[in-house]
Amino acid sequence: MGSDYQLHIFFFPFMAHGHSIPIIDMARLFAARGTKSTIITTPLNAYFFSDTLDRDRQKGLDISLQVIQFPSAQVGLPEGCESVESITTIDMLVNFFEATTKLQQPFEQLLKKHQPDCIISDMFFHWTTELASKHGIARLVFHGMSYFPLSLFENIKRYAPYENIASDSDVFVVPGLPDQIEMTKAQLPDHIVARNAISDMMEVINETELKSFGIVVNTFYELEPAYAEYYKNEMGRRAWNIGPVSLYNINIVDKATRGQKSSIDEHCCLQWLDDKKPNSVLYVCYGSCSRFSSNQLLEIAMGLEASEIPFIWVIKTPRNNEKEQFLPTGFEQRMKGTGLLIRDWAPQVLILDHPAIGGFMTHCGWNSTLEGVSAGVTFITWPVFADQFNNEKFITQVLKIGISAGNEVWNSWVEPENVMVKREMIEKVVTQLMSHGEEADEMRNRAKELGEIAKRTVEEGGSSYTNLTDLIEKLREHKSIHTSQRSKEKAINK
Ligand SMILES: O=c1ccn([C@@H]2O[C@H](COP(=O)(O)OP(=O)(O)O[C@H]3O[C@H](CO)[C@@H](O)[C@H](O)[C@H]3O)[C@@H](O)[C@H]2O)c(=O)[nH]1
C-alpha cells in the first residue's frame, strides 16, 4: 500500500455533545491530514455540525456525512429524542441505549456500501469491534475520557479500596497509581461500587476494547505522561493520544459553532470580554447536559455577586422553572457590566481563549477540562456525575491547577435536585482562585505553562501531531496486510 493511498475512515460518534464534539473535531483533523472522513449520525445530530463540514469541504477537505434514522419510536422514546440532552429522566436512558443497539443493521449496510478502511467509534458502540472484524477492517475506540480517569477507574475496580472503610466520606488512597490519589466512596459512580446494568455494559465495552485495533485519546502526552505509560504498559492497551482536538478550531466561526449554535452573538461576547482586564473574568459552565435545581442556581447567583469578581455564567434553566424564578430580584440589573449571563449554549472555546478569562468553574467533563488546560486557565472544580470526580482529582491533586468547590457526592443523574454547594463556599473559592496570593499565582503560572505546551503539541513535530502520523501509518499497514491476505485467499479458492 503506497503512502499516497487515501485511507477512508468512518467516524461514529455517540449522540451526546460531550462525546460527539471531540469526534467531529477528530474527523476534521484526520481529513486535514489527507484521509477521507465519513461521519455516521442521525438526522437531528447531523444538524449540529453540517455547516462546519460545509466550510471544511469549501477548504478542500474530503469530509462527508451519512445519515441513519434513530429508532426513537421503536423503543418508546418521543419523536425527535435522538441525543442524551433531549432525555428528561434517568429511565429514558435505558431506552436510549436500547435504540443505539438497533443501529447495527443500518451501520453495517453503510459498511458494505462504502467499504472504509477503519472505524473510529464511541465506546458505547461496542458492537462495532465485531462488525469491523467481520469486514476485515480496524476499529479504534474513543472513550471521551483520558488516561488518568481510565487508569483511576481501573484501579478502583482492581483493588476495591472502598471496601475497607468505615463510612462513605472516609478518604482512601487509590492503590497502584503513579501519584497518591485520594478519594471517597461517595465520589464513586454506582456502577463501580455495585453491580448494575451499567457495570454489565462497561464489562462488554472493556472486552471489545481489548479485541479492537486500539484506542484514540483526546489528550497530549506531556499532560499525563505517567498515566499514558500506565495505561499502555499496566493495562495493556494500544493507544494514540492526538489531542487537544479542540485546538483544530482556529477561526472565530469554527470556535463558536461547536455543538449547538450559541445563544449569544459571538462578537458581542468578545466585545464584552475586550473591556475586561487580562485574567480577571471567571467563566462558569457545567457542560452540555448538567442542569442544576432552582435553589442551586440561586446559591450560585448570590455567591458570584458577593465575590465581586467579573463573570460569564452559562445557565441551563431547570425544566420546571422556565420563567427563571431562581435569580435574585434585580440580579441582572445589578450585574450589568460585571456579569454576563448566557442562556443555554455558550461559544465555550472562544470564551476560554480570550485573555480576559482567568478562571473556569466547571463540572469537570473531560472536554471542558482539556479546553481549560489548553487555554491556560485555573479551575474551580465542581464534579457532578460520570468520570467528573476523577477529573477533579487530576486537576487538584496531579496538575495542581485548581481548587475544589466542595461537592462531595456523585450523582446518578445529570439533574441533581439538591443544593451541592452553598453561596458562602462559592464566594470563598471564587475569591481565592481569582486573587493574587502566592498559591493562586503559582497555580496560574503552572496553568499558563501547560496551555503553551498544549498548543505546541498539535503543531508539526509536536507529540500529538507525531502520534497521529504514526496512527495513520499503522492503519495503512493494517490495510496493506489485509489486502494481501484477501488476494492470497482468493488465489487459493480459485
Ligand atoms: O454552553 C456550552 C456547553 C458546552 N460546550 C461544549 O460542550 C462540550 C462539553 O463536554 P464536557 O465538558 O466533556 O462535558 P459533558 O457534556 O458533560 O460530557 C460528557 O462526556 C465527557 C467525555 O466523555 C465526560 O468527561 C463527561 O463527564 C460527560 O458528562 C465541550 O466541548 C464544551 O466546549 C459549549 O461549547 N457550550
UniProtKB/TrEMBL annotation:
A Pfam family recorded for this sequence: UDPGT
Iron-sulfur is among the record's keywords: no
InterPro entries given in the database record: UDP_glucos_trans (IPR002213)
UniProt-listed Gene3D superfamilies: Glycogen Phosphorylase B (3.40.50.2000)
Domain of life of the organism encoding this protein: Eukaryota
UniProt keyword annotations, A-Z: Glycosyltransferase, Transferase
An example molecular function term from Gene Ontology annotations: UDP-glucosyltransferase activity
Family: Belongs to the UDP-glycosyltransferase family.
Record protein name field: Uncharacterized protein
Organism expressing this protein natively: Coptis chinensis
